[in-house]
Amino acid sequence: DIDQAKVKALLIAEQAANLSSEDPLILTVLGTVHTFMRNYGTARVLLERAATLDPNSAWTHSRLGWLSVYADRPEEARSYFEKALRLSPLDPMNFNNHVGIASSYQVAGDDKTASKGFQRALDERKNALWIHRNLAPALLGAGNEQEARKSFEILIAAYPKMTVQHFKNAMVFSQPVLDRIGAQLLELGVPEK
Description:
- By secondary structure, the chain is mostly helical.
- The chain is built from eleven helices and no strands.
- It has helices at about 1-20, 25-35, 40-55, 60-70, 75-85, 95-105, 110-125, 130-140, 145-160, 165-170, 175-190.
């Protein structure tokens, strides 16, 4: 239940913030939750405050990157993700920064570059099969239908109950981006509901 999970996450994050409103980690968590709640203004204030308190937090910069992706600001997003990679080059979660960079290209409509970035992230974290929800449509958009079908098969094997509606409910991309990726998922064979 995505909606219930978001409400619970917000409640827990706000409880943590009440304990320490000046802790950059707590502010980053709270900003992340507000991002998923689509409270972008609040998320940006919290994440920028966290970055001010701890300018060397790779995770805070990564979360600012994701916020920018969801707000259709791909160039800004890439600068945050690249800074996160510079701040923590050996971070085991860097594959997620690569997914973010790829997502910024997907948001910008450059599916060819996006698909290469998603593949780069998968090369680093092979068991992150959820990446195929973005890789398969990006490959299709880039004109690589055969590779897109292979990626789609991996996606459906890992997530047999996946639907386009579930994707749209879970993701916080802008509506035009959700509609474009949703149409690509439909074309690949993901059921609408």
